[in-house]
Specification:
Shape: elongated
Radius of gyration: 37 Å
Distance between the termini: 77 Å
Low-confidence stretches: 1-40, 241-249
Helix content: 55-70%
Strand content: under 5%
Oligomer: single chain
Structural class: mainly alpha
Number of helices: 11
Number of strands: 0
Order of helices and strands: HHHHHHHHHHH
């Protein structure tokens, strides 16, 4: 089922639309399937999704599910209240025109054929009621055309938003392989960010910044350490420049007092690396 951008379906877990293959199919193994795969391949058994949500992540999963259910219940109650008010209004209209409960066509025809309100409005507008009836029909048809056009535009926006989400999802997985849009949309903070137009990567980083920051800092530190090591190794591997421009002492040895600052630093680096240098 596609995830449309109105996000009304996000909370009920129906947003399983991650494409296929590398485009993001969520493959969920049961504990038994995982164990069987481990026995076949000889690889160490990994915890399945079911194991995780029933084990160490049970509290977090339950909390998110409860929040999602509360939102859905709240939406349902609001719709029920609105429907109840509409039913009360329809009951009055049915009583007025003597139509049966549930026979909406009969009620609609009765309203359209009611000359009482047509005669009053026709008189006020200076036209006959049949002309007014025709005008009213044309107005209703125009309104219906507008609603149809609006619905088509809404569907087009939803489709465009869906395609954008799918593209962003693939990009986010390139940075964070564990990213799963279905799981993330259970988080109200993440859902609210996406609902308000924030891209998936930014929303994910905002919600998980406490987890991402330490990892990013470690990666940066490791890279800096690696870069420094490469610089030292590069300096040590260069041909010695001690013979270039130095002045030999009368005994034929290097005169340390004549060495430049760069040459002395090179000697120091080489000694620290374990090389034995005789001057």
């Amino acid at each position: 089922m596609k995830i449309y951008f109105d996000l009304q379906q996000f909370a009920d877990g129906a947003a399983a639309a991650e494409g296929s293959g590398t485009d993001g199919v969520a493959s969920v193994e049961t504990g038994a399937e995982t164990a069987a795969a481990a026995e076949t391949t000889g690889a160490p058994q990994e915890e399945s999704f079911d194991d995780l949500i029933k084990g160490k992540y049970k509290a977090d999963f339950d909390k998110r599910m409860q929040a999602a259910i509360k939102r859905r219940v709240g939406d349902t109650k609001a719709l029920e209240a609105e429907l109840m008010k509409a039913r009360e209004t329809l009951a009055v209209a049915q009583q007025r025109y003597g139509t049966k409960d549930g026979d909406w066509d009969a009620l609609t025809n009765a309203l359209l054929e009611d000359d009482a309100y047509l005669e009053k409005e026709a008189y006020e507008r200076g036209i006959d009621k049949d002309t007014l009836r025709t005008m009213k029909k044309m107005e209703r048809e125009n309104e219906q055309l507008k609603r149809n056009q609006s619905e088509l535009e809404r569907q087009a926006r939803q489709e465009q938003a869906y395609q954008k989400l799918m593209q962003e999802q693939t990009e986010v997985k390139g940075f964070y392989p564990d990213f799963n849009i279905d799981n993330e949309l259970l988080n109200p903070q993440f859902e609210n960010l996406v609902r308000n137009g924030i891209d998936l990567k930014t929303a994910y980083e905002v919600v998980h910044h406490n987890e991402i920051l330490p990892v990013a800092m470690k990666v940066a530190a490791d890279k800096a350490k690696s870069d420094a090591s490469r610089v030292v190794q590069s300096n040590l591997s260069r041909p010695s420049e001690l013979g270039a421009g130095h002045v030999d002492s009368p005994s034929g040895k290097v005169d340390i007092s004549k060495l430049s600052k760069e040459q002395r630093e090179e000697i120091r680096q080489r000694v620290m690396a374990g090389e034995r240098i005789v001057l």
